C-alpha cells in the first residue's frame, strides 16, 4: 500500500519539555513557527519545520492543507473524565456524596442498555473532538457493555484512548454494584479484548475506596501486579465527608491513601483524581511510587471540593495531570479546564502562564500517562494528533489578540478566552476527525 502524505501549513506551537512557571519559558522547552508546516505520512509526523524548508522535500502526490492564520498544537489530553456523565453535567450540585447519589448513580444505571451506551459513546467522542481533545483516560460505568461500546467507537475513529469498567461492589444502587470477583472477571475479559489493540489501553477502575470491599481492592491489586502495563484510575481525597467515611470503613489503614497502598494500587501508572486534601507526607508517598494526581479544577470549583495545591505537589516531586472530570466538571474543553486551573491558582497565589497551561494540556499530560513517546508534542515520529486553533474564532478573541505583542501574551489570552469555537479542526492518526462547521 502506498503511503499518504499530507502537509499542514500554518503557525505551530509545541512544547518539547516543561517550560517552567516563569513568564519566559526555560530555554529549549518550546518551539514556534510563524509560517510552519507539519509533514504527515500516514498516521505519523515525518517532519515539522518552516513551510519553505519542507515544501521542496514532500513528494508530488502530497495533499496540501492550508491553515495559514491558524495555530496548530498537539491534540489536547484529558487525564480523567467520565463519559457516562455527559447527560448530568451541571446538575444542580451541592457536594460530592449527595451529587453522586442524586444524579450520578441514576445516570450510570442507564448504561446497562447497549443502545444507550453506544449512542452516548459517539456523542461523547463528537464532543471531545469538537473541543480538540484527542486522548483521554475515561471512566465507563460498571456495565461491561459501556466499555465495549466506548472502545469500539474510539477504535472506529482511530483515537488513542484509555478506558475501564467501574468496579464497585457496595454502597451504590443494586443496578450498579458488581459481584466482588465477577467485576474482576469482567475486567479481565475487557483487558483481553481491548488492551493494546490499535491505539487503546485499559485502565483498572475501582471507583473509590468507599464503593469497593477490601476483597475487591485486593483482587484489583493482584491484576495490576501481574500486568504492570495496565493503568489504574480512581478518586482520592476530594471531599472532607468522603475522607471521614473512608476512615470509618477502613479503620486499619493509616489514612485514605493508605487504603490504596494496602491493596497494591499505587504505582507509576496510577492516576488519582483530585487529591485536594493531602499533606506533604502523603504527596511524597505518592511521588515515591511515580503516581499522578489528576487536577480537575472545574469539578473542584463546581462541587466546592477545595483548591488543589499544584505547586505543593510539584515541590513534593508528585506529578499532576490536568483533567475535566466531566460530569463533576463543567467543561469538556481543555480551555475550560485551563481557565479553572488559572482561577484555582490565582486564589492560591500560584497563577498559571500560557506556556505552563498548554504544556500541561499536551506534553505534561502525555508524560503523566506514559505516552510522551507517542503523543503530546509535534515532533518527528510522533503520532499525528493535532488541534487547529483559530485566533479569529470570535470578534472578541480576534480583537483581544490584535492587542497582544508577544507570543506569551497571545497564548495566555487564548488560554483564558478560548472555548470549543476556537477549535477550527481536529486531526487524529493523521486524518481530520473534526471540522468546525
Ligand atoms: N468520587 C467517586 N465517584 C466520583 C465521580 O463520579 N465523580 C467525582 N467527581 N468524584 C467521585
Ligand atoms: Zn471523577
From TrEMBL:
Signal peptide: none annotated. Its cofactor is Zn(2+). Pathway: Purine metabolism; guanine degradation; xanthine from guanine: step 1/1. It catalyses: guanine + H2O + H(+) = xanthine + NH4(+). SUPFAM superfamilies: Composite domain of metallo-dependent hydrolases (SSF51338), Metallo-dependent hydrolases (SSF51556). Keywords: Hydrolase, Metal-binding, Zinc. Binds 1 zinc ion per subunit. Its EC number is 3.5.4.3. InterPro entries: Amidohydro-rel, Guanine_deaminase, Metal-dep_hydrolase_composite, Metal_Hydrolase, Metallo-dep_hydrolases. Residues 72-433 form the Amidohydrolase-related domain. Pfam families: Amidohydro_1. Catalyzes the hydrolytic deamination of guanine, producing xanthine and ammonia. Belongs to the metallo-dependent hydrolases superfamily. ATZ/TRZ family. This is Guanine deaminase.
Amino acid at each position: 500500500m502506498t503511503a499518504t502524505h499530507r502537509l499542514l501549513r500554518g503557525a505551530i506551537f509545541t512544547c518539547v519539555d516543561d517550560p517552567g512557571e516563569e513568564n519566559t519559558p526555560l530555554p529549549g522547552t518550546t518551539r514556534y513557527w510563524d509560517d510552519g508546516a507539519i509533514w504527515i505520512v500516514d498516521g505519523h509526523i515525518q517532519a515539522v519545520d518552516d513551510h519553505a524548508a519542507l515544501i521542496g522535500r514532500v513528494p508530488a502526490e502530497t495533499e496540501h492543507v492550508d491553515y495559514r492564520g491558524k495555530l496548530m498544537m498537539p491534540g489536547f489530553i484529558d487525564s480523567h473524565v467520565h463519559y457516562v456523565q455527559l447527560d448530568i453535567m451541571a446538575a444542580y450540585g451541592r457536594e460530592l456524596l449527595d451529587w453522586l447519589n442524586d444524579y450520578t448513580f441514576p445516570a450510570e444505571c442507564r448504561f446497562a442498555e447497549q443502545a444507550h451506551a453506544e449512542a452516548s459513546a459517539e456523542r461523547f467522542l463528537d464532543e471531545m473532538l469538537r473541543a480538540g481533545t484527542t486522548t483521554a483516560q475515561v471512566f465507563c460505568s460498571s456495565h461491561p457493555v459501556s466499555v465495549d461500546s466506548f472502545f469500539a467507537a474510539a477504535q472506529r475513529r482511530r483515537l488513542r484512548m484509555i478506558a475501564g469498567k467501574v468496579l464497585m461492589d457496595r454502597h451504590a444502587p443494586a443496578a450498579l454494584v458488581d459481584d466482588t470477583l465477577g467485576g474482576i472477571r469482567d475486567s479481565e475479559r475487557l483487558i483481553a479484548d481491548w488492551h493494546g489493540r490499535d491505539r487503546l489501553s485499559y485502565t483498572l477502575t475501582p471507583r473509590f475506596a468507599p464503593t469497593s470491599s477490601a476483597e475487591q481492592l485486593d483482587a484489583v491489586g493482584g491484576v495490576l501486579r501481574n500486568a504492570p502495563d495496565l493503568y489504574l484510575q480512581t478518586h482520592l481525597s476530594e471531599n472532607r465527608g468522603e475522607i471521614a467515611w473512608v476512615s470509618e470503613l477502613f479503620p486499619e489503614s493509616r489514612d485514605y491513601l493508605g487504603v490504596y497502598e494496602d491493596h497494591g494500587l499505587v504505582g507509576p501508572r496510577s492516576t488519582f483524581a483530585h487529591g485536594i486534601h493531602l499533606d506533604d507526607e502523603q504527596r511524597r508517598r505518592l511521588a515515591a511510587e511515580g503516581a499522578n494526581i489528576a487536577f480537575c479544577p472545574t469539578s473542584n470549583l463546581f462541587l466546592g471540593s477545595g483548591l488543589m495545591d499544584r505547586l505543593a505537589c510539584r515541590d513534593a516531586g508528585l506529578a499532576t495531570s490536568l483533567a475535566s472530570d466531566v460530569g463533576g466538571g463543567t467543561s469538556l474543553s481543555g480551555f475550560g479546564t485551563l481557565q479553572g486551573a488559572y482561577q484555582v491558582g490565582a486564589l492560591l497565589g500560584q497563577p498559571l502562564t500560557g506556556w505552563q497551561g498548554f504544556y500541561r494540556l499536551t506534553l505534561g499530560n502525555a508524560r503523566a500517562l506514559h505516552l510522551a513517546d507517542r503523543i503530546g508534542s509535534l515532533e518527528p515520529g510522533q503520532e499525528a494528533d493535532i488541534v487547529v486553533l483559530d485566533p479569529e474564532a470570535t470578534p472578541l478573541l480576534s480583537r483581544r489578540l490584535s492587542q497582544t505583542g508577544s507570543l506569551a501574551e497571545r497564548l495566555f489570552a487564548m488560554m483564558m478566552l478560548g472555548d470549543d469555537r476556537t477549535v477550527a479542526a481536529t486531526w487524529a492518526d493523521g486524518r481530520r476527525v473534526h471540522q468546525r462547521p
